[in-house]
Specification:
- With 975 residues, the protein is an alpha/beta fold.
- The chain has 32 helices and 27 strands.
- Helix 5 runs parallel beside helix 7.
- It is elongated, with a radius of gyration of 35 Å.
- Bound molecules: adenosine-5'-diphosphate and magnesium ion (MG).
- The site of magnesium ion (MG) has 4 residues, from helix 25.
Length: 975
């Protein structure tokens, strides 16, 4: 978010505040240094916010707004410091940045005003939120740009600070920004960094839409309606960007100099501890390196230390998978429901997620967003899944071995960020302890991918496998993600052993009580503990002895952190206290004393405790260092675990639900027999809502090149376009999405819910939903729909899959129809992509006669006594045109109206057949003219239809109904 008002306000206020308290002077200094943050200033037991910050925070957190002064010119609000964490997380989730201005001295120990400084800046992309969903990555993104037009290069770096995953890519050419949009639409970073001066292609809008809209949207009640743009009627070119950046809540501008090669690149090298970035794949990708370097700069600026686990970056090619743009990801509900707030059960991710580990869940999610597009890769995954499907014991063995595996990557991240205590480290050990078992379980499989993933480090293991090609094994392993550390599955027994040998089995939460480090680890520690123990024994002896000496049975030796050890005697007994006791403190009911002997033991015990505490901490720090040194190994193992988990999950689902292996090939085919929509089917099962009706499809992309001659009708030619008509609620949208989801699944390496599926590799999937199907979102306009359609027509290829659902609905009937018509022709003649086109424009079904590779499909319905029943079967042919009238009849429209509507329809059809027939005779070039003529008739009939639709039948007397009918007839006659 941009948070512009803050600093100006701070300046203005500081003038008269300077005359006020020193605390406020500290506050203004801090605010001036961090104008874009909500400044939380520790005062006593509270974090206080002032002025505009206070207004924002009170709104976002529902806090009471108070004021510092009587005139109420200085608003403030606060949160108790011990509960601050949860408030801060809420602000971050809403996209704000927060700076903590802390007390640098103990207020008890200073007479002067306590020194305060900003100790941490928390931002949505850098704050590691403990409540972060396990399957979600928390990306911090950074974008750098160089050149323009065809020379343009856009670099993108992405870091998940909670796991240390760091990667970068680069986009080039005129479409670089559009590609960036798609990539960001998928990654959905929590925060995006860019240089101040960055602008998209010189457009007046900034690189990113300001997040004002966003904050308003999920902000406080009452702010929902404020998403209007500034007065000027521009905002057209923004629409695509708006969509792509929808998920980016926070945008942070860095000064331009940060994004320079002289600064950013050496900084990145230093962070990664390398002399050259070549080894990380960044050679020749300076723009990507710039983005990554600037990101490191930002981390250093906002955090204090704890970045050791960021020791590697991976360059990835963004075109290396099946591309799903942001709009399609959303429309297909791959990972999030279409409407925020809806149940996640509608997502493909939810339906497929039977992963055992958080790493597996994250990989599954990422895979669905970017399935593979390379045949070899897909086949290897399918082979592995296939083997596991057929081997129940092997499969269960692997899945069981992953039980209890915690989030290694995040635990490691916490170790690095120094927020891991002894218990977290023990938890990590527990997870490491499962790894040898997992390696063994995976080792039972033979498929190439299993051997690569689980291949043991020891050569004996490899040569054991019968199909083994030991030489190939190590070379087959992708080392791009690791830093070339290891060739087998590294179960990290050494680290596991080191941890369990160092830390006690059930360590305390913190070091305060001691007892974290095992006995036998450090001789001095053992000795000190012994000393402490004997000291405490001595104290017990003293207590016993003094009781006898004084005759006070209730005398106790006690300890507290302020007074140390003392002898406590109740008031009633204080007269029996001997001379040599020295009074320390008097309470209401008791008195406390000390003796020279007690003091001596106190010193001994406390010194021993202090010293052993130091040693424990030192040993723990060493352990932490060793763990961090192994960060690369651990990440590589985590990567393998993730993939093992995901493939085992695919196998589990396939076996459980009877899914089949798709036949993937290099062709233009899309064919499935008795396919089912995985999500809808599952939901119907769960709700007992009947059986999902399977459907088939057979399409073939047209690779014929881009010659534009109109193809003559060839019966039997494979269709590349299916035009689907039929009644509302008939199942058109479901059928479309089912096709796309099966492709996503197949290319992810997952089996599919169908009897059979054949698939030629798809390079991109486009899914567009016409405006009116989307109105609930309240933001979709016809303009957006057309912008999205433009993106398809400009970038789809013969290998793409295009889904158009109710295109053209957002505008008047005939221009919508004309656009849809022309779009279908273009897809057919120029692109050849496999296309499913669901439409309510019945007129489009006429295209079947003109376009050789277009076929009509319809969803079926049947009339019964009880009303219309949707069969949900898809069959060849165009839907009957009178469905609408039939439905109206069933709804109880007066018989006369229905009869008249049938007449009107006939008239309409006759006119249309003549017009279009004439058009067909003249060929494609003149198709536009007759469409114009048709409008002479249409607006009237449309008006009548609209009137009919609006009538409130229940509130209509028979007489009024007749009048209405007469009126409609008059209008028709007058035309
Ligand atoms: P349309 O796009 O034609 O209006 P939808 O695809 O939105 O229809 O489907 C309408 C309803 O029918 C949805 O609730 C969906 O769950 C159900 N449905 C769709 N296809 C099937 C099918 N093949 N089997 C069972 N139910 C289906
Ligand atoms: Mg629909």
């Amino acid at each position: 978010m941009r948070y512009s008002g803050g600093s100006a306000m701070a300046k203005e206020m500081s003038d008269d505040a300077a005359m006020q308290t020193p605390v406020m002077r500290q506050y203004f200094a801090a605010k001036e240094a961090h104008p874009d943050c909500l400044m939380m200033c520790r005062i006593g037991d509270f974090y206080e916010l002032f002025y505009e910050d206070a207004i924002v925070a009170s709104r976002e957190l529902q806090l009471t707004l108070t004021a510092r002064d009587r005139e109420k010119k200085q608003p403030m609000c606060g949160v108790p410091y011990h509960a601050a964490e949860q408030y801060i997380q809420r602000l971050l989730r809403k996209g704000y940045r927060v700076a903590l201005c802390d007390q640098m001295e103990d207020p008890k120990l200073t007479k002067k005003i306590v020194r305060r400084e900003v100790t941490r800046v928390l931002t949505p992309g850098t704050a590691v939120d403990a409540s972060l969903g396990a399957e979600q990555s928390n990306w911090l993104a950074s974008v750098a740009a160089s050149g323009a037009g065809a020379q343009a290069r856009v670099g993108l770096a992405l870091l998940d600070l909670s796991t240390g995953e760091f990667r970068a890519t680069e986009f080039a050419g005129a479409t670089a920004w559009a590609q960036l949009s798609d990539e960001l639409g998928q990654a959905r970073p929590a925060e995006l960094l860019a240089a101040e001066g960055e602008r998209v292609g010189g457009a007046s809008s900034g690189l990113l839409p300001t997040l004002r809209d966003e904050t308003a949207k999920d902000g406080a009640p009452g702010s929902g309606g404020e998403t209007v743009k500034d007065g000027a009627p521009d905002s057209v070119p923004d629409s695509l960007l708006d969509t792509a950046f929808e998920g980016v809540r926070t945008r942070t501008e860095l000064e331009d100099w940060v994004y320079t090669a002289e600064y950013a690149v050496p900084l990145l090298r230093k962070q990664l501890g390398v002399l050259s970035l070549e080894g990380m794949g960044l050679g020749g990708h300076e723009t990507a390196a710039l983005a990554a370097g600037a990101l490191v700069h930002y981390l250093q600026k906002t955090m204090q230390g704890g970045l050791e686990h960021i020791d590697a970056i991976r360059f990835y090619a963004h075109d290396e998978g099946l591309t799903l743009d942001a709009v399609s990801v959303r429309n297909l509900e791959l990972v999030e429901p279409l409407f925020s707030g809806e149940s996640v059960q509608t997502t493909l991710f939810h339906t497929l997620d039977a992963c055992a580990t958080p790493m597996g869940k994250r990989l599954l999610r990422a895979t669905l967003l970017r399935p593979a597009a390379e045949l070899g890769e897909i086949e290897e995954r399918l082979d592995a899944v296939g083997e596991a499907v057929g081997d129940l014991r092997g499969r269960e063995g692997v899945r069981r071995a992953m039980n209890g595996l915690l989030d290694m990557e995040r635990l490691l991240g916490r170790v690095a960020l120094d927020s891991a205590g002894p218990r977290e480290v023990m938890a990590l050990a527990g997870t490491l302890g499962c790894l040898p078992g997992l390696r063994e379980a995976v080792g039972k499989f033979k498929a190439k991918r299993w051997r690569e993933l689980g291949g043991g480090g020891d050569p004996s293991h490899v040569s054991e496998s019968r199909h083994g090609a030991p030489g190939k094994l190590s070379s087959g392993i992708s080392t791009e993600k690791s830093t070339g550390i290891c060739t087998g599955f590294d179960a990290m027994e050494d680290l596991h052993e080191r941890i369990v040998r160092t830390i006690v089995e059930e360590p305390p939460v913190s070091f305060a009580e001691g007892g974290v480090i095992r006995a036998g680890v450090d001789a001095e520690l053992d000795e000190l503990r012994e000393l402490g123990r004997s000291g405490r024994q001595a104290l017990a002896a003293i207590e016993e002895r003094e009781r006898q000496r004084t005759g006070i049975g209730s005398l106790k030796v006690r300890f507290n952190s302020v007074f140390g050890y003392y002898l406590e005697v109740t008031k009633a007994n204080s007269r029996s206290v001997p001379e040599d006791y020295e009074r320390k403190q008097t309470l209401v009911n008791a008195e406390r004393f000390t003796t020279p002997e007690l003091k001596e033991y106190e010193t001994k015990i406390l010194t021993a405790q202090e010293r052993s505490g130091e040693i424990e901490r030192r040993i723990f720090a060493e352990l932490r260092r060793q763990l961090l040194d192994a960060a690369g190994r651990m990440r590589e193992t985590a990567r393998r675990v993730a993939e093992i988990d995901m493939l085992a999950c695919f196998a589990h689902l396939a076996a459980l639900r009877g899914w089949v292996r798709p036949e993937v090939e290099e062709s233009g085919v899309l064919e499935f027999v008795a396919g089912r929509h995985p999500v809808v089917e599952r939901r119907m099962e769960e709700s007992g809502g009947g059986r999902f009706v399977p459907n088939s499809i057979s399409l073939e992309g047209w690779m014929g090149g881009s010659t534009s001659q109109v193809s003559e009708s060839r019966p039997g030619a494979p269709a590349s376009i299916a035009l689907i008509t039929g009644p509302n609620m008939g199942g058109k949208s479901t059928y479309l999405r089912q096709a796309a989801l099966l492709v996503v699944m197949a290319q992810s390496g997952c089996f599919v819910p169908a009897e059979r599926m054949r698939l030629g590799l798809v390079d991109r999937i486009y899914t567009r939903i016409g405006a009116s199907d989307n109105v609930a979102r309240g933001r979709s306009t016809f303009m957006v729909e057309m912008t999205e359609t433009a993106a398809i027509l400009n970038t789809a290829t013969a290998k793409s899959l295009v889904l158009l659902d109710e295109m053209g609905r957002g505008t008047a009937t005939y221009d919508g129809l004309s656009l849809a018509w022309a779009t279908v022709e273009h897809l057919h003649e120029k692109i050849g992509a496999r296309t499913l086109f669901a439409t309510h424009y019945h007129e489009l079904t006429l295209l079947e006669e003109r376009l050789a590779r277009l076929k009509n499909l319809r969803v079926t319905a049947k009339e019964t006594a009880g009303g219309i029943v949707f069969l949900h079967t898809v069959e060849a042919g165009a839907a009957s045109k009178s469905y609408g009238i039939e439905v109206a009849r069933l709804a109880g429209l007066p018989g006369a109206v229905i009869a008249r509507a049938r007449e009107v329809l006939k008239l309409h059809e006759r006119a249309e057949t003549q017009q279009v027939g004439a058009a067909l005779a003249r060929g494609v070039g003149e198709i536009a003219a007759p469409a114009m003529q048709m409008t002479m008739f249409t607006p009237l009939s449309q008006k009548i239809v609209d009137r009919l639709a609006e009538v409130d039948l229940d509130g209509l007397t028979p007489r009024e109904a007749l009048n209405l009918l007469a009126e409609l007839q008059r209008e028709l006659k007058n035309s």
